[in-house]
Write a structure and sequence with these properties.
The chain has a single domain, classed as Nucleoside Triphosphate Pyrophosphohydrolase (Alpha-Beta Complex). It contains three helices and seven strands, in the order ββββαβββαα. It has helices spanning about 45-55, 120-130, 130-145; strands at about 5-15, 20-25, 30-35, 35-40, 65-75, 90-100, 115-120.
Length: about 150
């Protein structure tokens, strides 16, 4: 059995008007989030972000379109997901990325992984996320966009 690496990406998908695309987990209805996913082998994190974005939403990023925030946080892995990691692994290091796309960008969900998607204004999107790190990244988005 191969285990997931405890290094992942969080990819915020947002429109120029700061609406945020959230996706609902298929196995956990009511759990809304941005794109997330684990690094595979020694894959560069920017490639992990682009791969996960495409796998989970069908959105294909152009080179340089995904922004690396150079921000990471460590969090405790929820007990219901620990079986995916090597025994004794309790924490994951998550790296934050974002991509700005038009709101009418087509979205095609990975059927076994997610069941619904929706665009929300950034404050509502932050409130809808079950993950604190996801919420905190969304709350930082307006200041980041102003500074950028």
């Amino acid at each position: 059995m191969s285990f997931k690496k405890p290094v992942s990406v969080l990819v915020l998908i947002h429109s120029p008007a700061l609406e945020v695309l959230l996706i609902e987990r298929a196995a956990h209805p009511g759990f809304w989030q941005s794109v997330t996913g684990s690094q595979e082998d020694d894959e560069p994190l920017a490639l992990t972000a682009a791969r996960e974005l495409h796998e989970e939403t069908g959105i294909l990023a152009q080179p340089g379109q995904i922004e690396d925030w150079h921000q990471q946080q460590q969090y405790e892995i929820f007990p219901q997901w620990r079986h995916r990691y090597a025994p004794g692994t309790t924490h994951n290091t998550e790296h934050v990325f974002s991509i700005c796309v038009p709101r009418d960008t087509p979205v095609t969900l990975a059927p076994g992984e997610h069941r619904a998607w929706r665009w929300l204004p950034w404050r509502e999107a932050a409130a809808a996320c079950f993950s604190e790190s996801n919420r905190d990244a969304i709350l930082a988005l307006p200041a980041r966009m102003q500074a950028g």
